[in-house]
């Protein structure tokens, strides 16, 4: 649900349903996703097959959504940053850092007590998770302070943390992979709740809370105002600096959660590779979802669809057995096509050609 | 200079239609432009002037109609296209790159080259020469932003001239110039006219129209109302044709009611007082008193410290010495939020950059300040927002398709009304209006000023800043004249008239 959907609740004129659908912001991202899914349906046998095994839902679709969870979280945070005309390229580094903090604190050992395995954490799991999210939050404060306080350009400001965050994580782990031996922690990234992957619930809650916040407070309005015209927004009495700090903290916290999901899923923290290039995928997801990098109007739901497009694409490429060395090229071609399909200028060119 | 019948128009536009979603911007619009004339295009906001110019310069493609330039039918597809043909435009808002040097701005995209490299020396020399022709003497290597708006405007004109254009279009070039600068511009235009250039001039200022024009085309409701020889058309007749109804009178005299109100305002409680408020290099210590229900006019030339004063009173810029008291208590106004919290509202002179949030709707723009004051968490319910927007749209006569229309699609006058409403919604006790009527048409101007004076009668205090002296003289209870960044005189209503005020402003002693 996008913020700017609010006016659409009461359309000015009763336009035909079809044209209203075509004009909707989400139409193009959803159409792109649908085309991808159609290709999968035609080329990959049993793609839409879902079955319940051991009370868990299995299938390609579940797999895609589950694997897209960290990216969706990062994209939700990135959406708000981009809406303020900013950008956060430290997302991957924050993912690595939060995963590292959680994994190191939990550590964990399994001991046999009376023939029953019992898992012991070095630090209580909730404390470790809180510490990881706290570290992410501090990262966000740092970014926000540089952008809003010192007036650095967002890409430069977050570039610092992009390097420093991963560096710090590597320092903490001596460059080694930290393995976790504590069963309950794995539930985050690979557990199931009501038959569905738990990660989905995390995404749903974050998305839901964000959407509620945008709808029931003036947050969405203020973010758009700051993104479109920061000078006018300040003169209208909006606390622009506080708002900008908030979006960077929010984005970093989302990245922190993504880091927890990823490290829990692989039962370890890899400071070198965890979340590598995730920021770029997140920016791509936001763009695919129809939010302009120029800031202003944004669509939270669009970014989720964008994340799903990226993950579906990855899944498709692997399933079709595209050789790994061709993988990146194929992905970039598809992304190029999706972006082109969303360009108004390209459409006009196309229409003029045909006319 | 008047075109004779033997002459052929260099540019002839006929039967132009242009439709936007929900609005017919132009229907059967036309224009004839002869070489060696200054032709003024007049009309109210929304009459279609800007759209017609955008059609001429290739920004919009017309749905129907023909453009004949130097005997050939043309259909410019972009401003570049139009420029290459010989139609140059200087837009209302200076459309250059502030961070580039003056010379670069003049030659951007057409840098003189030497052996494939940019010939910086030749570029500087040519730029200097062009500006000298316009009687502007500045260092062309400095970034454009380091010069006042008036100079930037001249640079834009120099750029247009450097393209050896045959038609020069000036879209409200004078709206940000002071009197001396306007005269400079006009003498330049006259020189260009002598050289056979066809100049299309768009303005809202009647005086300037009569000072410079040979002929006038009046537009109304997207159509050409008529084409007139300037000397044959009286001012009253012109206004009449623009509005399409007989105006009561061109100037409303100060009514007895207003005079009485001025007297009562003098006794009213003090809403805002400054004691030596100053900012180094920007404003000399200033003592100002504004009473309840009073309309205080700030007169002075561009750069005299009017806007700087407004920004300080609103907390947009901090004072570094002195004090500002609001309702008897000293207040540190560190940010606009502080000023808003104490009941001050501020309409900036720069509507596009400091006022309107173009992509947001009329409703969102209108409630923004009120929402900001209430805070982020206490969202104004949508229903209440709509009610507020509907109320002010009706009250101020804002012409918009709906309250959900992006404000950027409204005409300048209507945008200004929305911004006025943004502050009225916060029910301020002091409203600072910096050039609220700049670049908007006669009728909207009148409507806004009438509304503003009615607010005064209801007890709101207003600080009114305008370059249009007759307007300041007409509405103000009291006038503070500023010169060279300090207040240099204070006058009650009636103590100044059109001629004496000029003396005071110019510092020649009244």
From TrEMBL, chain A:
Bilayer-spanning residue ranges: 30-48, 68-87, 94-113, 125-148, 155-172, 192-214, 241-262, 300-320
Membrane-protein topology: Multi-pass membrane protein
Keyword terms, alphabetized: Cell membrane, Membrane, Sugar transport, Transmembrane, Transmembrane helix, Transport
Gene Ontology CC annotations of this record: plasma membrane
Domain of life of the source: Bacteria
Subcellular location: Cell membrane
InterPro entries for this protein: ABC_transp_permease
Cell membrane among keywords: yes
A molecular-function term among this protein's GO annotations: transmembrane transporter activity
Residues annotated as signal peptide: none
Protein name per UniProt: Simple sugar transport system permease protein
Species this protein is from: Massilia aurea
